[in-house]
Amino acid sequence: MKKSTSLIAALIAVGVAGGLYFGVSKSEASATPELEAKKTAITYFDAVVNKNVEEATKYVKDVRFKDHDELASAYKTMLQNDPVYDYKIHSVKVSDATHVVMDFEYDSKELGNQRFTTKMVKDADGWKVVFDEIETIDRTKNKSI
Question: Which pTM does this prediction carry?
Answer without folding.
Answer: 0.71
